[in-house]
Amino acid sequence: MNITVVGTGYVGLVTGACLSDVGMNVTCVDVNVQKIENLHKGILPIYEPGLDEIVHRNVKAGRLTFSTSLKDAIQGSEAAFIAVGTPPGEDGSADLQYVLAVAREIGEHMSDYLVVITKSTVPVGTAEKVRNSLKTALEARGSQLSFDVASNPEFLKEGAAIDDFMKPDRIVCGVESQRAQDVLTRLYKPFTLNGHPVLFMDIPSAEMTKYAANAMLATKISFMNDIANLCEIMGADVNQVRKGIGSDPRIGTKFIYPGIGYGGSCFPKDVKALVRTGREQGYELRILQAVEDVNDDQKMVLVRKIKAHFGQDLSGKHFAFWGLSFKPETDDMREAPSVVIANELLAAGATVTAYDPVAAEEAKHQLGDRIQYASNAYEALTGADALLLITEWREFRVPNWDRVKQALNTPVVFDGRNIYSGAEVRAAGLTYTGIGLK
């Protein structure tokens, strides 16, 4: 099959690379000339474990190409994925201008039947807008070409996207015709051969499924953070509580780890968009509004703990961050708690040195030179008054506590992800503070 993927961001590049890796001919299109030039040189715009190897292998095999011309790429394609950004507006609604612009351009240049598939996370009702954009563009040409619109939301976890695409829990496809279903059936056959299910449904249900899934996961995170905060007040240990409830198969162990709030490109944006959608329909999604409120507040929890220890005025204090990205195995800084924490500490008069294995360059786009960047974890500690564990990268899991203590001005550790044993850290002579612990 010949496939066009519009957008070479996280979703688009992973989609294009993985489809080419199972033998399809894929052209990834982007209006960003520099990004396409870099891809031609083998320079990827994102960090994702294993992605560079797949891209290089399929480029070499001739199955994966990159272009700035949608007009050229769309010729001969059976399906076109729209995988461009849908950034949140000030009111929380998803901005669809890029999705609809791509739909119009496809309508201007398509030359045969095509299934146009929204891969971007879009609100319910977007497919109808995409259909209207395509229809308007075709009518302007005086063309009677037929097409179908489909919804195929992604369920990729940053840091595990390749496995998620190649071995999906489920593939959700919203279709409106048998012809479109047949195309998507052939497209995903390489994955269903291994028993991974394709769930066909109507388009609005597929669009809602993506938002509902992310909203449920975000809800679990905020719920556990709320419980963690209450545990501290009541003298309970959230780690024991987590084990106690996680053993119930109706609840499970995933996404019930307390911390400093969720971030990234999906959960914050999708929760806001779903809340906004509800309000537009005259329905208040009260639970999800609370989820968002708890998450915003949770990003401040380490700041409150630091000020409780050192005082409200942090002038002259210096803090070391281990981790900057919103989660391990990615350089994504969107909605990262580290940005909120750093800004609050700076506003209180402190200084910050941070180390992250891959996200330093991305962090500079948001924090600039207002903080310092270390080349390794222990360098970041030099002269700091406390260590803040922000992102639970593997290399931070078993530190040399004697070395940590020697490097710090004052032996204090704030564990924002509860990855350390408080007893072990205290036995090494450091003060330890986690989330939701005694």
Give structural notes:
The chain has 438 residues and is an alpha/beta fold. The protein has three domains: 2-201, 3-Layer(aba) Sandwich (Rossmann fold), CATH 3.40.50; 211-297, N-(1-d-carboxylethyl)-l-norvaline Dehydrogenase, domain 2 (Orthogonal Bundle); 299-433, Rossmann fold. The protein has 19 helices and 14 strands. The strands form three sheets. Strands 3-2-1-4-5-6 form a six-stranded parallel beta sheet, with helices on both faces. A six-stranded parallel beta sheet has the order 11-10-9-12-13-14. Strand 13, helix 19 and strand 14 form a beta-alpha-beta unit. The longest helix has 32 residues, at 203-234. The radius of gyration is 24 Å and the shape is elongated. The mean pLDDT is 95.
Short recap of the structure:
This protein is of the alpha/beta class.
- The amount of helix comes to 40-55%
Largest sheet: 6 strands, parallel
Mean pLDDT: 95
Number of domains: 3
The assigned structural class equals alpha/beta
Give the tally of β-strands.
Answer: 14
